[in-house]
Fold this protein.
Amino acid sequence: MIEAGTGLARDRDPGRAARRASGEAMRRLTDRRSAPEEYRDARRGSDLALVFCAGVSESSLPAVLEEVRAVTGVDNPVGCSGAGVLTEAGEIENEQGVSVLVCASDTLQTFPFLVDGLKGRDRDVGREIGRLIREKATPGSLLLVFPDSISCHPDHLFAGIQEVAGSLPVAGGGAAAEGASGLRTLQFCGQRVVSNAVSGVLLSGAIAHSVGVTQSCLPLGKPYRITAAEGNAIKTLNGRPAVRSLIESLAGPGGELSEDLHRLASHVFVGLPTGDVSSWKHGDYIVRSILGVDPDDGAVYVGCEVREGGTIGFMLRDPAGAREDLKSMLQHSDSSCRQPALGFYFNCCARGAGLYGLPEIDTAYIRNALPALPVVGFFGFSEIAPANGGTRTHNYSGVMALVSESASA
């Protein structure tokens, strides 16, 4: 049996917010328990405390974690800082806030961890995480990771984990910073609070899971083949200057916008497929920013390295389309995970009210699709999900991970 509860609190006093969020999570955990009284009495309270904080200074985090430990009885609460925090009950953006999930189970085992010294050592840190978890992983395991977005080279980190632990599904989000904390993100586990690190938790045991990705940037027209590229510069697409393909894409529905490329700078992106191009319309791509255009040779510069022979398409940031994509993703995730017991939602800091113009849209859709399901998460600088046999980092997306008991349990 897997039982969980969540709490969400905003307060100018971070310790008080943590106490309130933890208390709410424990009350909901108790309310959900349906086991016989003698079984509940044998519990130690909860086995896992996952904590996310927004707008909380590094000096205040020890008090936050102490409150979580005192209320939940969990010695090693684990989590990171975010640009905002959320549960199924709602979202907190641009304010100090704390979200907490507590879980108790006789079928789900949890192994929180924290590995520091990340910058320049991504693969080594990945290998160390792999060594920590490889003996604890089971066939249905899911690894949640929260790396320092500023210091991390994600592909190297994931390669190190896979090198030691094998093809383990990985999900999560890049830790973010908000307000006075500037660009210093924080990771924590137990009593340790650091930066330049990776925190996370391995979920294993008699469980099953599903991971879905929802996009806020949707395809503009057809994908193109990269016929010439250098570094992060796309020189030609389908044998023509790349900027001509960009203008061609914008000349579809809403093509009048192509007259002012500068005005579109914050709305148009590139997408790179993570699988077969035939699934282009179903969100199987990663989004990267367009950094600039060369007026002389028509090259388009993007926020990642590109190679000749690859495929890209142009994307438009679309609030209405994002709602429909989120709805579709939630329906698919729910159908592929039998009776989920808890969920995790890792949202891009460029979504939320900044995307929709209104707060708490994503969590409203989550409540509607998954009534009463405990869900916790945060707004990060990136989102992490399995893709095509590996692990990829997304931008401008939301990643939903659902966990249930396996059929054998």
